[in-house]
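Below is one such record:
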Amino acid sequence: MSNNKISDVGINIAEKATVIWNVADMLRGPFKPHEYGLVILPMTVVKRFHDCLLPTHDNVLAQYEKVKHLAVIDGFLTRASGYQFYNTSKFTFETLLADPDNIETNFRDYLAGFSANAQDVLSKFDFDNVIKRMVESNTLYLIIKEFNSEKGYLGADKISAVDCGYIFEDLVRRFSESFGEEAGAHFTSRDIIYLMTDLLLADANLDAGGMTVYDMTMGTSQMLSCMEERIHDLNSDIEVTCFGQEFNPSTYAIAKADMMIRGGDPNNMRFGDTLSDDQFEGFTFDYCISNPPFGIDWKREQKKVEEEAARGEQGRFAPGLPKISDGQQLFVLNGLSKLAPNGKMAIIQNGSPLFSGDAGSGSSEIRRYILENDWLDCIVQLSTDMFMNTGISTYIWICSKNNRHIGKEKYSL
């Protein structure tokens, strides 16, 4: 993909995200600015679901009438919808708006019609309480009307999975900024992601029948989407299976929704803290691509991490533990433990994994472990303005499990 195309798509994404975010004009007063995302993010997911399902809505209703008496109906209804999810409610956004006096009851009926995997997505937003607040403030009808406008359309025929993912990323960034959070903790520009994918795939076996990709801190899963896109740019016949884990409920919900729409297995998107609640124990992957948080302590995960380290080579953290105030190297070790024998990882880091800790410290021993196994291919320094709200130096580490071992020379680290 050319830089011009990336730039053009980026502009369209920003415009669409701005249109959606402008719904906040109706929330002023009943909702504080830092609460706008509580409404806008789940409503955007619901509208994305709605617009994708709308073309097959009548087919699903007809099939539901035929099979609703059966014990297991999911397979029939997903085939009818054309997606990994469905909705059996008679309502659409159009018919909801036709009955303003019963907007809450009918909207709840519409949400209840979603399949269980879609229900799981919505549950992560605590959407029930948000609906109550919209009803109390007389904004529910207005919000649905605005999302049902032509400019609020989010169907898959007009907006690809990758582009919709970036719309979500932009909305999350705006929500984070309004909430006073560091937007850089939730947003990685697509220029950086495409650089990572190209570094990972530079020597890829493009005759492979299938590839697996894992993101241990997947956010809204855009690294996974871009990696899948890049692989298919090179060989459209390769089957790509994506796996990811995320600890933030809202971004996890968006990632799972995105996977459902893309047609992948939503069960591969898993919720939990990667350091203390590994959802992929025993799994290995061809590629790992990730941007873990910078400089975040691991006090909350300390007990579980130390238990894992005590398992030695059977665990993920045998080489050593970094200082409690910075868990970045724990993510590096987790990623290495997940690589298949010929696997390759691209992971973003700040400067601390390069320099922190004296010789003999946990941080130093982790670096020794990587170097003595000859797993570090290269480190690419990024410009200091590549991440929002931070001017720190950042780096992409490329690690490969398929390098020739260089022995056990001792390094002074």
